[in-house]
Amino acid sequence: MRLFLLALGLMLIGVWLIIVFNYYFQLGGLKINWLLMFMLVLTFRHSKLLLPFVGILAGLICDALSHGIMGIYGISFFITLLLVSQVNKLFYVNTLFTVSMGVFSMSIFEGWLSLSILDMLEPGINQSSLMLTSILPLAVLQGFMTPIILKMVIGGENLFLREAA
Questions:
Q1: Which pTM does this prediction carry?
Q2: What is the DSSP string of 46-73?
């Protein structure tokens, strides 16, 4: 229950960052997907099955904010977080470098998955140019922003997930 409340709190912060921060600050015209970053870092830290289902809600929020086809981000977030929760068991990911590399690689995977779903719904999208011009630079940017998100998640864990006295 505490992990669910932490995820919801981080999602609210992510929504606020998408609405306010992405409007004023865009590096190279790229809008950082704060919800995906929070959910990826949280899933890397806690491989609970609850988090991919919370990721569906985060994806639907991203769909609503993007004014695109509803469900694309919801499906891609769910599959990506489900993959992260399974891959997380194979290696130790509580170091800054491994979490950053994990966010980078899973951001590329989620972008590819979103583009593949969108291509099924609207054929004729040039996936290779979109991967090179928007998804790959955005994944690099999100990989570099991961230490800030990791510190925020650890602070939230210390606040919400500590043992009750």
A1: 0.85
A2: ---THHHHHHHHHHHHHHHHHTS-TTHH
* Contact status, residue 59 vs residue 73, Cβ threshold 8 Å: yes
State both tokens at 76. Answer: 């891609």
d(CA 23, CA 43): 27
User: Can you give the pLDDT at residue 97?
Assistant: 84
The answer for residues whose C-beta is within 8 angstroms of residue 37's C-beta and 6 or more apart is 14, 103, 107, 142, 145, 146, 149
Number of H helices, E strands in the chain: 8, 0
Q: Which domains does the chain have, with CATH numbers?
A: 2-160 (1.10.1760)
Q: What is the mean pLDDT of each run of 10 residues along the chain (165 residues)?
A: 82 87 79 88 84 88 84 90 85 77 90 89 81 87 88 82 61
Helix (H, G, I), strand (E, B) or coil at 91: coil
Distance of CA 13 to the CA centre of its chain: 13
What lies within 8 Å, CB to CB, of 114 at 6+ separation is: 72, 73, 76
